[in-house]
Amino acid sequence: MDKKIGFIGCGNMGKAILGGLIASGQVLPGNIWVYTPSPDKVDALREQYGINAAQSAQEVAQIADIVFGAVKPNVMLKVLGEVNSSLNKDTVVISIAAGITLDSLAKALGHDRKIIRAMPNTPALVNAGMTSITPNALVTSEDIADAVNIFRSFGLAEVVSETMIHPVVGVSGSAPAYVFMFIEAMADAAVLGGMPRKQAYQFAAQAVMGSAKMVLETGQHPGELKDMVCSPGGTTIEAVKVLEEKGFRAAVMEAVVKCMAKSEHLGKS
Ligand SMILES: NC(=O)C1=CN([C@@H]2O[C@H](COP(=O)(O)OP(=O)(O)OC[C@H]3O[C@@H](n4cnc5c(N)ncnc54)[C@H](O)[C@@H]3O)[C@@H](O)[C@H]2O)C=CC1
Ligand SMILES: O=C(O)[C@@H]1CCC=N1
């Protein structure tokens, strides 16, 4: 793609997208402009990736064809509002902020602006992201294809209606955090069993990745795949029984429901 890509804000998530995009070879580093208020951080990104360091958010807005707003939700509307007059007519603005609706973005940017609300996740950094994309009515099918291509260059991406955004945050945007906790807890137990810590993380993480791949690639029901592991009278069913007794599934469901509720709350405040 020869479009110019801009990042206003580039912390955990912006860097995951930037890193994924560059690793995919889809966009050359020379076609990427980044601004954050900390010049040291932008310089570090320039050294690591070879991107252009912008002096201001307005500079990014002037140059880029596609501008990522990758700042925290509480400053997103202010930051985008301040660069609005620097954007070109056809620039596509992609906000990745949790809880910031297309409607509020249009209020900050004007109702004639092409805007996409996207919800990526940090595994973008290792080419395994999952992103939802919700365009407003002004975004053309070509713009949508560009956005899908960008996000698919480092994982999977689906266009969804804005009503799906809260489940997306719950099951994907925020989900890596719960999975990391699961991996950490399994590894702690393996360490308790005498395994060196580094090896414990490797075994636990590979088990999670392989299991996820089985769900994605076999098309089999997760319950069926679980049953395949549980030998009669074996070790796994002992662990499964404890997880059921401790309310593992209910805890996960409740956590995701809380996450969705917070996403909805952010959208209203
Ligand atoms: N971290 C995650 O896993 C995910 C985060 N998001 C969304 O991504 C957005 C960013 O989150 P993180 O990357 O985690 O936050 P972060 O705090 O790591 O990064 C924020 C970035 O914005 C910059 N910044 C702060 N004020 C600014 C300003 N006035 N102008 C320009 N840049 C400014 C900071 O220097 C930093 O580079 C949030 O809106 C969040 O909802 C979405 C999906 C997943
Ligand atoms: O915790 C958050 O608010 C952001 C949105 C999805 C993941 N991190």
> Which term fits the overall shape?
elongated
CATH topology of the largest domain: Rossmann fold
Question: Uncertain regions: pLDDT < 50 for 5+ in a row?
Answer: none
**Tally of discrete structural domains:** 2
Report, as a whole number of angstroms, the end-to-end distance. 37 Å
**Ligands bound to this protein structure:** 1,4-dihydronicotinamide adenine dinucleotide, (2S)-3,4-dihydro-2H-pyrrole-2-carboxylic acid
Mean pLDDT: 96
Order of strands, main sheet, comes to 3-2-1-4-5-6-7-8
Protein described:
Strands 3-2-1-4-5-6-7-8 form an eight-stranded mixed beta sheet, with helices on both faces. The relative contact order is 0.10. It has 269 residues and is an alpha/beta fold. It folds into two domains: 5-165, Rossmann fold, CATH 3.40.50; 173-268, ProC C-terminal domain-like fold (Orthogonal Bundle). It has helices spanning 12-24, 39-49, 57-63, 73-83, 102-109, 141-152, 165-173, 175-192, 197-218, 222-229, 235-245, 248-268, and strands spanning 5-8, 32-35, 52-53, 66-69, 92-95, 114-119, 129-135, 155-159. Helix 4 (73-83) packs parallel to helix 5, helix 7 packs across helix 12 and helix 8 packs across helix 9. Bound molecules: 1,4-dihydronicotinamide adenine dinucleotide and (2S)-3,4-dihydro-2H-pyrrole-2-carboxylic acid. 1,4-dihydronicotinamide adenine dinucleotide (NAI) binds next to helix 1 and helix 4. Its EC number is 1.5.1.2. GO terms for molecular function: pyrroline-5-carboxylate reductase activity.
